[in-house]
C-alpha cells in the first residue's frame, strides 16, 4: 500500500545541522529551488578579498578622522553669537559628523557584501522546545556568525569598527559644551531671571503691560517681563524668556491657601508662578480653572495653583516657584522682586 510522503517529514529527516542550525542549499535534498550559488569575485580571487578588506577598514578609519575633524571644527569655528560663526560651526561640525556616520555605514555594507560569506542557507521549521540543546544551538549560531563575518579573525576590521563607533560618539559629547554660557558663572545665571522690583508684568509676546483689573476670575495669562519685550527677539531674548516666563491666574481669594511668609505675594487673588516645569523644564501651560490645577503636557506633572503650586501628581519633585507681585500707582501688576529660588529643573548646585 502506497503512502504519501509528508514533505515536512522529509525535510526534517533530511535536515542535518551543519555548523549550527542551518543547512546549505547546495544540498540537493533540502534545496527549495534556489538557483545555484554564484561565487563573488572576492570568493575566487584572494587579492580582491584583500582589497575589499582594506577598503572596509580604510572607511572605518576615515570615519575616525571625520569624527576628530568634527571636534576640531567645533574649536576652530567657535560660536561667538554672530550669524557667520553659527553657520560655519554648523556646516563644518555637521559635515564631520555626517561623514563619520556615512563612512561607518558604507564600510559595514561593503563588509557584509564583499567580505562576509554570502552562501544561501535554509533553516527548516521545527518545533520550538525548551531543550538543553537550545542554549548550545544559540552559542553555535554566534560561533558561526563570528566565523563567517571574520569578526574575531579579522582584527583590522574589528578594531577599526570599534574605534569608528567610539569616535562617532565623541563629537556629540563635545558639543554639550555649546550649551554652557559663553561668559559668567552658570550657577549664577541659572539662579536669577530678569524680574526685579517694580518691573511690570506684560503679555507674551506683545509686551503690553497688564492691569490687575483685566485679570478676571478663572483667566490665565502668559506673561513676560515688560523689559524683555524691548529686546524684541534680539540677542539673549530666548535665553531670558526661557527663565522669566510666568503664568498669571486669578482665583477666588477664599480658595487660596498661602504660606505665612507668602501672604503678600499675591494681589486680590491674582498669583504668578513660573511656567517652567520643575521636572525637566517643559512649559506648564494647561490650566484647569475649575480645579485650579496646572498640567505639564510632557510627563503629566500636575501642580495645585490654589495651594502654592504644590506637586499633586507626576514626576516633578518641587512646586513651581512663585513670583511675588503687587500693583503700581497706575494699577499695573508689577513684580516685588526676582524669584526667590531658581526656576526650572534641579541642578547640582541648586540651593
Ligand atoms: S517636564 Fe513637566 S512633567 Fe516632565
Tell me about this structure.
The protein is of the alpha+beta class and 351 residues long. The chain folds into 2 domains: 14-125 and 132-179, no CATH class; 186-335, Rieske Iron-sulfur Protein. The protein has helices at 7-14, 41-44, 46-76, 83-115, 132-149, 155-174, 186-191, 226-230, 237-244; strands at residues 23-24, 121-122, 201-203, 220-225, 246-250, 270-274, 286-288, 293-295, 302-304, 310-313, 325-327, 333-335. Residues 1-20 have low confidence and may be disordered. The protein binds FE2/S2 (inorganic) cluster (FES).
Spell out the helices and strands N to C: HEHHHEHHHEEHHEEEEEEEE
What is the alpha-carbon Rg in Å? 33 Å
Could you tell me the mean pLDDT?
87
Number of structurally distinct domains: 2
First CA to last CA: what distance? Answer: 91 Å
Bound molecules: FE2/S2 (inorganic) cluster
Low-confidence regions: 1-20
Largest sheet composition: 4 strands, antiparallel
The strands making up the biggest β-sheet line up spatially as 3-4-5-6
Question: How would you sum up the global shape?
Answer: elongated
Query: Which structural class should the secondary elements be placed in?
Result: alpha+beta
Strand fraction band? 5-15%
- Strands, total number: 12
* Portion in helices: 25-40%
